[in-house]
Amino acid sequence: MGRLDTSDAQTSRAPVHRPPLSIPKNRRWNRRTRRDAWVFAAFAAPNVLLILLFTYRPLVTNFYYSTLDWTLGAATATNVGLGNYVEFFTSPDASSVLGVTAIFTITTVGGAMILGLLVALALNQRLKGTTFARAVVFAPYVLSGVGVGLVWLFIFDPTYGVLSWILRTVGQASPQWVNDPKLALLMVIIVYVWKNLGYCAVVYLAGLQSVPAQLLEAASLDGASSLRRFTSVVLPLLSPTTFFLLITSLLSSLQAFDIIRIMTPSGNGTSTLIFDSYLQAFGSYNRAGYSAAISVVLFAGLLVMTAVQLRFVERKVHYS
Amino acid sequence: MSTNTLETTAPRDRPLSWQNLGKTIAGGYVPLLLATLVVFVPLLWMMLSSLKAPGEIVTTNLTLLPKNPSLQNYADAASTVPFARFFLNSVIVTVIGSTIKCVLAVFTAYALVFIRFPFKRVIFLLILVALMVPPQVSVLPNYVLIAGMGGLNTYWGIILPGLGTAFGTFLLRQHFLTLPPAILESAEIDGAGHWRKLWKIVVPVSVPSIATVALVTIVSEWNEYIWPLIVTDHPDMMTLPVGLTQLVNSDGSTQNWGMLMAGAVIVLLPILLIFAALQRYIVSGLTQGSVTG
Questions:
Q1: Would B147 be classed as within a structural domain?
Q2: What are the distances in angstroms from CA B85 to CA A170, A263, B62, B81?
Q3: What is the torsion angle, in degrees rounded to the nearest 10, for the CA atoms of residue B15, residue B19, residue B21 and residue B23?
Q4: At which of B45, B73, B101 does a domain end?
């Protein structure tokens, strides 16, 4: 496959198809240009309008909904101002949601990235079969979270699951994965990491393959051990890849829904921001306004992270 | 990708030479095999379990292979919920949704790259930022809108809100920018309009990129969960992932694992087959496309 330019795709632009520069400014809106504007509108408008209606409009509507005490489907709602936000930031339930989100996000991002890097190192060898292994490792990333969640739910089943069988053969009883809030969180983290580490591995692999061989040879000649070569040469060179993966993984982790919904439908111990927002509006809580407030908080968080990302991408994470 | 360095390597560095064989197996193949198995075994276990008789699943004495492989679990799943209907719904939603999305992406990307327009940068920025808005955040307002339009439990209600495509537009734009302007200039001299330039020149030379967008779109439409889950509550309109949810006992009692594994196979296998055949496009599309987050 082609090389993955993870950091340079935005900056290395091929020539843009520009209009000839010789057209005088006052004649820019001649007949041809006006016709072009109409063609542009006809080509781009359907997509742009759909994005405005179903991606941008909800961001605004959420703000309005978040000021309401409102049950989904009810014709009337009470305005509570910022009450939903006040409740979100003060109630113990909400702080547990923030805690679960933090634990889930940090462990899944860290787990998928560290394991992904290890797998990438295993794939980055002159061995037969690495291309096949790379495809296999990436596969879970494209699979339905619902299907994957069910497969693992069976593996984690305390009576008939493979895991309980393994634990029994070493004389241990299987814990109740789903019913224990802490273990339920651990369970969805394991499955999420399993599903996503292949993505990190493939992106890291592309980074590893762009490490210049001469640098490693030079380090070897200087007597650097393979561990030293990795920590002093490879890892610093990978820092743009690491930063890119950190941001993309953080964003996608904060959006995790499928696996959590199918493995722990009640959200006992696994209520992240996204999942709690879903349960509040569409679950048994019937609190659509509160749900909208959570969505606004989550979106604000994502916005800050994206801004940080753009700032850093602009300056790049340079290795000296 | 691993063969190009072989020629320059001295013989003693060959991984499979006698001196290095032990080291290669321990340091090279064992981690590789381990990573592959960690992914492969759960999926294999799902396939095997879906073919087992109930007595072989509801037992604490595990057997690897089904004694009498049968499709009984699939039949059971289909008699419990309208499984064929779920499958059909998923196919309809995926085919219509991805076709429209790809066409929209091609048109928008062409307009952004090849047509003169004063506010192009603003529009591109609008699309770029949309890439970063998680669809889950828009679910509640979109539900209210679609429900108000009578779109609950309809195909258009499932498909419509996801049709605007930022990802495909972005990916195709990046590709169109790399096309040499010269290929369009000769057509311009012949007096070809944008419509002809798009279909006669730009689309034919961009087949691999369009295929990448199409495949990634098909995969994500097929796997789409939160929106169809919310917008359908009638079994006849549910897609596969939503329908599978119906098979799970929500009260936490013992699950019918054979049946659930059969359901998981039905939802996972089509994508696994597509991925096995065309993984180069899918991997490159997914890793390139997420450059912006």
A1: yes
A2: 44, 24, 33, 9
A3: -90
A4: B73
The tens digit of pLDDT for each residue in A130-177 reads 889 999 999 999 999 999 999 999 999 998 899 999 999 898 888 999
Kindly determine whether residue A159 and residue B60, on different chains, have CB atoms separated by under 8 Å. Answer: yes
Q: Are B32 and A129 in contact (CB under 8 A)?
A: yes
The enclosing domain of A190 has a CATH number of 1.10.3720.10
Greatest alpha-carbon pair distance for chain A in Å reads 86
Nearest to A133 among B36, B163, B254 (CB): B36
Condensed to tens digits (0 to 9), the pLDDT of residues B171-196 reads 999 999 999 888 888 888 888 889 99
Domain encompassing residue B279: 75-292
- In degrees rounded to 5, what are phi and psi of residue A69? -100, 110
Q: CA-to-CA distance for A159 and A176, rounded, in angstroms?
A: 9
Q: Is residue B2 part of a domain?
A: no
A83: number of Cβ within 10 Å: 17
One domain for residues B54 and B199: no
* Half-sphere exposure (Cβ direction) of A166: Cα atoms closer than 13 Å: 6
Give the separation between CA A15 and CA B288, rounded to whole angstroms: 20
Residue A183 lies in a domain: yes
Burial of B212 (0-12, 13-18, 19+ CB in 10 A): buried
Handedness of CA A44, A4, A312, B216 (dihedral sign): positive
CB nearest to B181's CB, from A17, A33, A56:
A17
- Cβ pair A257:B226 closer than 8 A: yes
Which residue do the tokens 């020149």 mark? B201
A85: pLDDT confidence band, cut at 50, 70 and 90?
very high
**ipTM exceeds 0.95:** no
Preferred mutation among A5, A11, A54 to probe B, highest tally of B CBs within 10 A: A54
Beta bridge partners of A79: A68
pLDDT in tens, B141-156: 999 999 999 999 999 9
Do the chains contact at A118 and B2, CB–CB below 8 Å? no
For residue B253, give the DSSP letter: S
What span, in angstroms and rounded, lies between the C-alpha atoms of B280 and B94?
Answer: 21
CA of B102 to nearest chain A CA: how many angstroms apart? 10
User: What is the nearest CA distance from B62 to chain A, expressed in angstroms?
Assistant: 7
The alpha carbon of residue B29 is apart from the nearest alpha carbon of chain A, in Å, by 8
Question: In angstroms, rounded to a whole number, what is the distance separating the alpha carbons of residues A145 and A195?
Answer: 8
Residues in chain A closer than 8 A to B285 (CB atoms):
none
**Domain-located, residue B3:** no
The residue type of A268 is N
